DNA sequence: AAGTGGTCTAGACCACAAC
DNA sequence: TTGTGGTCTAGACCACTTT
């Protein structure tokens, strides 16, 4: 909410979500928005580009900015949403059980994945996400201790992202993810309520700060019947 | 390649992919790039923003544009990549078998999904994707005939997207996708080589043109052991 | 202090859609 | 013809990192 254009973006998102502008409507023209928000056109255009990137509008030359039906997709797991936000959106009762919170020398395949030296210390965190009494997700996080010091069990039970962004004031910027289906391991069987499922959906994420440092690798293992991933992809024309 | 900023973007992508700039390097400063490409700073910034959105660089204030390790992720299924592009990237021998290509009145749940009238005609296309001799993917497409006329079996065996973009000169702009895991249907068992798998990964996509019209709904059913989805997600700071 | 990217401006010209 | 968004410019000021 600090820049002009993100604050205008937020206001327009509100108006769309409140139904002031409905799917199929066009927003006021860029010229009009300039007047409404007392700003220049390029600034308005930055706000509208943000809306387009996030699936709220589609800009059509000669016509205007058409409002899309954003409600159909609630984007529950898309982007960098953390588990806590996800659970809040789902509105279900949930818990997080911390099974392991240790510091280890970076070793084996994980060190390679995190691009770090032999001497770097890594947090290893193993947690299960329990929804409506059932262990649904097994999260295995590896986090660089030099960047994120002071983790506690309590922090891990709530939201590590909260701690990183609000306490440590670090900015999480982007993530690369891979989604595949794999056969369950012994650990999966011990820590999840698999109900006979023989496979889990595995999301492997590499998470970066805004200064481009890779500080976290996460393996998130989901019971397949409870898995959902939603994506909004805009085409980059070459 | 028509705009200045997309052409500069393409040139920079090339330089990065050729290794002229390696991961960890910084690109020349915006000021320098202005001189190199004989253009204004805002134009250079548009190019750099495109690079950032697509995971090639991370811009760091006070430092510069840091090149990321883009090679690790080949983005095989991300975005709006069509099957043909995917297969080309995988470099495997593949075929497409067309089982059904019919026009039907929009009915049942599909009409609702495509937001179209009872009287609209829809193509229904059922295809299997065969990789290295095995039926791996079952694609069921529903496409508005008023927007995409003239489909033939031959087009469906190659690339419908090619036909839409190059023959019909329509611009595909964005898609909303949902990924879930479901139990196999009888149709899956008939048309795929499931090798005993009891579940498939289902990608449901809603595809839009650049004028915001929804013209296609696709259900893509993947054998789980051959499924992979890669995602690059940049955080939108509110 | 110097160099970097981040934001914002006021204006120009163009391409496309609607009237 | 008018109005829409798309591109591009030249310049200003700010915030941050490095020297």
TrEMBL record, chains A, B:
InterPro entries on file: Bact_HTH_transcr_reg (IPR050679), Chorismate_lyase_/UTRA_dom_sf (IPR028978), TreR (IPR012770), Tscrpt_reg_HTH_GntR (IPR000524), UTRA (IPR011663), WH-like_DNA-bd_sf (IPR036388), WH_DNA-bd_sf (IPR036390)
Keyword DNA-binding annotated: yes
UniProt-listed GO biological process terms: negative regulation of DNA-templated transcription
Domain HTH gntR-type per the UniProt entry, residue ranges: 2-70
This protein's UniProt keywords: DNA-binding, Repressor, Transcription, Transcription regulation
Record carries keyword Flavoprotein: no
One of the record's GO molecular function terms: DNA binding
Tree of life domain: Bacteria
NCBIfam families: trehalos_R_Bsub
The protein, known as: Trehalose operon repressor
Species: Halobacillus yeomjeoni
